[in-house]
Specification:
A hairpin with a 7-residue loop joins β12 and β13. The chain has 237 residues and is mostly beta strands. It folds into 2 domains: 72 residues, Immunoglobulin-like, CATH 2.60.40; 125 residues, Sandwich (Immunoglobulin-like), CATH 2.60.40.150. 10% of the residues lie in helices and 44% in strands. The protein is rod-shaped and about 95 Å long. It has 1 helix and 15 strands, in the order αβββββββββββββββ. It has a 4-stranded antiparallel sheet with strand order 4-3-6-7, with no helix packed on it. The structure holds calcium ion (CA) (2 copies). One calcium ion binds next to loops.
Length: 237
């Protein structure tokens, strides 16, 4: 009887060891994986990485541009366009696993094109309170000039005659869009009242630096100065 008890105890003990052994084997192998968003726009471009790895507790990111992170789900800003291979190594009790994905970042534009100018607001009287023309409304047109005064676009022949405020907005399309390069140079948009016998009345003007609008490279930009407001239709390249 005593021998049988010992045998039973021994077999129970071996069962315990076997269970413990199974638990040791249950450490699961990590699987590195991630998704990302915010790419495919011009640099500087901030990409958000969302870590969906399993069985891992620590992470190493290599963003492909000589920078790294150990955060779980980092954000990273790429300062230049390019195709980057992003590597994520996920480490857990069961070991390490690495995966990599390709992230595209567009090159930052170096040229801005002005495709159209829309006059949204203007003063209908001059500084002395008089109208721009003595008997009827102003005959408005724009010119775009560089800082040296060279006329780059002239809408004199496309003027809108005898306008009142309800005629606004007025749009001028620029058939050959005005290229502005580099982006930190100024283009000046002047608004005139056409006069046949006198010099044209200058109603106002607004300077435009493309570099002021490079956040997001919008396809329209509003510029305003002393009551004259234009909306510029832009294209970046
Ligand atoms: Ca006039
Ligand atoms: Ca007139």
């Amino acid at each position: 009887m005593k021998n049988i008890n010992i045998l039973l105890f021994a077999s129970m003990l071996s069962l315990c060891f076997a269970t413990a052994c199974k638990k040791e084997k249950a450490k699961l192998q990590p699987v590195a994986d991630f998704i990302y968003s915010g790419n495919n726009i011009p640099a500087p471009c901030t990409v958000t990485f969302n870590n969906i790895s399993t069985n891992a507790s620590s992470y190493t990111w290599d963003f492909g541009d000589n920078s790294t992170s150990s955060q779980k789900s980092p954000q990273h800003t790429y300062s230049m366009g390019g195709v980057y291979t992003v590597k994520l190594t996920a480490t857990g009790e069961g070991g390490s696993n690495t995966t990599s994905k390709t992230v595209n970042i567009q090159n930052a534009p170096t040229k801005c094109f002005i495709k159209s100018v829309t006059l949204n607001a203007m003063p209908f009287t001059d500084g002395a309170g008089a109208g721009w023309d003595p008997f009827d409304g102003p005959d408005v047109f724009i010119q775009i000039k560089n800082d040296a005064g060279t006329i780059l676009f002239d809408a004199t022949s496309a003027r809108k005659e005898n306008i009142v405020s309800t005629n606004l907005p007025i749009k001028w399309n620029i058939t050959t869009p005005i290229e502005v390069t580099p982006l930190n140079v100024r283009r000046n948009i002047y608004l005139y009242d056409f006069d046949s016998f006198d010099p044209n009345d200058l109603i106002g003007g607004v300077g435009f630096f493309p570099s002021s609008f490079t956040a997001g490279y919008p396809n329209s930009a509003m510029v305003t100065y002393q009551g004259v407001t234009f909306v510029l239709e832009l294209q970046w390249q």
